[in-house]
Amino acid sequence: MFKSIGFRRHFSNLTEQEVLALAISSEEDDARIYRSYAEQLRANYPSSAKVFDEMALEEDAHRQMLIDMHKRRFGDVIPLLRREHISGYLAHAPVWLVENLGLSKIREQASRMERNAQRFYELAAQRTQDADTRKLLGDLAAAEANHCQEASRLTGEISEHALEGEDQEAHRQFILTWVQPGLAGLMDGSVSTLAPIFAAAFATGNTWDTFLVGLAASVGAGISMGFTEAASDDGQLSGRGSPWKRGFASGIMTTIGGLGHALPYLITDFWTATTIAVIVVFIELWAIAWIQNRFMETPFFRAAMQVVLGGALVLAAGVLIGSG
pTM (2 decimals)? Predict the structure, then answer.
């Protein structure tokens, strides 16, 4: 019987043949991952896609060397053994998750894959008493170290101009997919809910009722903005990215924008709650102006005048309507 945690085997209980089989399957998986990265990046980042194509070919070469070694030592039948079968084996993030995180995260994950594989084999070799197994694991660690160097060389072959262009494209995509919809939502949630919340506050003088109005207005506006953003553009022609990502960003930020000045009305004292809510409103409006300046390159003074002045007018309208 082998030791296990759940249904995973301990690395120390693997035979030399199984260690070799594990290395073969790992190299095959890594090659597939790199090809997936290359395909994902090919349209917008051709230079980085070429790097991952060549890294996949390197993994194929390593796998073939390991298969040839297995045939010489153990024959043609390779045991089915994968990373997920081994307790403590360093797992990689799913391809679909890394793809959604952008170019820099894909590069970072690829580098981590190579470092983790090298470190795993080095540590495994140190724990092994059998001389032949220690040599085998040491050879695998050396192969991964060489692959790390090769990956660095391939990445270095991307010109600085190409990397700069790809980084600019990644930044532009981030702005279009996340910042613009999120900013629109934050502006809508912060400004459009001002009038109903403060009108309810001054009309009723009841903090709990005001909070309920603010909660309903914020959640309703968030749902509306999220679905509107997602349905308005599928991103195919505009290049603005996934409609669901944009809808999520817009809806969440709309809700946050409204809740910011609704939450103070959980305080039972009316004037304390109202004072805090007004302070929160101006913090929200200045934050919107900063985001416009930071990501949209809008001059800060102009953004501040537009947002703060507009918000102040809406706030005043809500107070006047509620007081009347």
Answer: 0.55
